[in-house]
Amino acid sequence: MSNESLPPAAQARLGQARRSGTWTSGLTVDEFAGLRSVGFEPVGQVMGSTVHNLGRFYRVSVNCGYVPALLGGFGATVTSSAPKAFGGFRDYIDTLYRARRTAMNRMAAECAALGGDGVVAVDLTIAPFQGAAHHLEFQAIGTAVRAAGPVRPGRVFLSHVSGQEFAKLIETGWVPVDLAIGASVGIRHDDWRTNRTAGRFAPAQEVGGWTELMAVTRRDARKRLRTDAKRTGADGVVVSDIDLRVEERPCTVADHQHDHVVETTILGTAIAEFRTPHRPVRPLTIMRL
Fold this sequence. Notes:
- The protein is of the alpha+beta class.
- Helices cover 31% and strands 32% of the residues.
- The chain has helices spanning 8-20, 29-37, 55-59, 90-113, 163-171, 192-198, 208-230; strands at 40-53, 78-79, 118-128, 135-147, 157-158, 174-189, 236-250, 258-273, 285-288.
- It starts with 7 loop residues before the first helix and ends with a strand.
């Protein structure tokens, strides 16, 4: 994304930063010292944002895996990765990916406009847009940095890692490539099996249907994280955050009944080894930094 394609407010803010000759950042003193120790310096705080309408998602009838039966129907977990004919959450997840990527691309464009090589300590947030039902604001904010030497990366890198963590990566021969996201929504109808084992008078025991819902949705999110990371050609991912939300909602298929919905998001930084010639992408390792 070019500087000209940035929103007017962002262009004005960048112009003011360049004219002032000073930089701002969200770094702590320790983070600043860590960056300088490996030959990088901050060039300015950058951000990108977008507001998206998710109205259709809130209105759409969603297949919850419910299958009617003579003696009581039964359910199965359906995730957002299912074909459109079977999963009503795919458009929702695709919108989340598109909105996050738009915000991150605008942040990367601001970094490039300031002469930066990449962004560290990126914070991705999603919040309701005040006064507009079913609208969400997606925001990405971080500190643009630049290497002191003559070697420039091929494109702007994005990472969630702090200044100290960035220094550790560089010192051990690794470099951030891009932010990687894995997100999935799973839904399961509360059938007679879950109601029987999760009821008020049920004995202490596992609720197998809900265990399946959680496990299947998490597995789908991790699969999407790997897919998102592989597009960068990275060797692995260091995970920063795993978010999980569970809610109950009225079933749109069976009247007066309910479904449980799980939404999970995994955020990390795709990294690549730079001290050896680049190798073909092998199965990605997902780990915490």
